[in-house]
Design a protein that fits this description.
single chain; 109 residues; 21% strand; 3-stranded antiparallel beta sheet; 4 helices; 28% helix; DUF6193; alpha+beta; two-stranded antiparallel ribbon
Length: 109
């Protein structure tokens, strides 16, 4: 994961509200703070894996079968994610995805 990508994500206020997590050199964003994190926000990965790799990037998601596109820069990749954020996105809910679902349905925790 490149520092450029992390800095670009942090500079975007809507992504800064979410819980970032990293897996398989990819930068993911969750709407909750505890595992198992949510998988309803697109994620960004490098086209060539390895520490410090900087662009180009691929943007996918929210599931692994949904290919969004390729971005030459971190800023382009971030913009692709922001364009596809769920309407109910942010700030991150303190808890698990199950607790988030209960909260969003109006149930009691």
């Amino acid at each position: 994961m490149s520092a450029e990508l992390v800095v670009a994500a942090y500079a975007e206020p809507r992504l800064r509200q979410l819980f970032p997590w990293v897996g398989m050199w990819e930068l993911h964003f969750s709407r909750c703070t505890e595992q198992r994190w949510t998988w309803d926000v697109p994620y960004i990965g490098p086209t060539a894996a390895g520490p410090g790799h900087a662009g180009p990037y691929y943007v996918e998601g929210p599931s692994r079968t949904q290919k969004i596109g390729r971005a030459d820069t971190a800023q382009e990749a971030i913009a692709m994610v922001v364009e596809r954020l769920p309407s109910n996105c942010g700030p991150a809910f303190h808890g698990t995805p199950e607790e988030l679902a209960v909260y969003e349905s109006g149930g009691n925790l």
